[in-house]
Amino acid sequence: MTTPLDLAMAYKRLFLDDGQLKQDARIVFQDLAGYCFSGRTTVAFDGGKVDPDQTLVYEGRRQALMHIEKLLSADVQAMRERQTDE
């Protein structure tokens, strides 16, 4: 079973180099920012009315991006300490 620490470390190895986004990761994040509604509303409209189904799709995209960002910014040392304490 993958632990939260293992998962955070895998994301960091994939996307980061010495704590900075790799060049390819930067390109991917620019693409995801647009596709995943980073920094803008996820409310979708159809004919002037809110489309709740599409809004939920957009919100799911946004949450997926936020999950990746959270793992990349995770404090690995603190996670290791918590894992050792358990």
Could you walk me through the main structural features you see in this protein, from its secondary elements to its overall organization?
The protein is mainly α. It has one domain (4-76). Helices cover 65% and strands 9% of the residues. It has helices at residues 4-15, 23-35, 52-72, 76-85; strands at residues 16-17, 20-21, 45-46, 49-50.
Major beta-sheet overview: 2 strands, antiparallel
Regions with little confidence, pLDDT below 50 for 5+ residues: none
Number of discrete helical segments: 4
| Pattern of helices and strands | HEEHEEHH
What is the CA-atom radius of gyration, in angstroms? 16 Å
Structural class: mainly alpha
The overall pLDDT average reads 92
Percent helix among the residues? 55-70%
Count structural domains: 1
Strand order of the largest sheet: 1-2
- Termini separation: 16 Å
What is the number of beta strands?
Answer: 4
Which of globular, elongated, flat, extended, rod-shaped describes the shape? elongated
Strand content: 5-15%
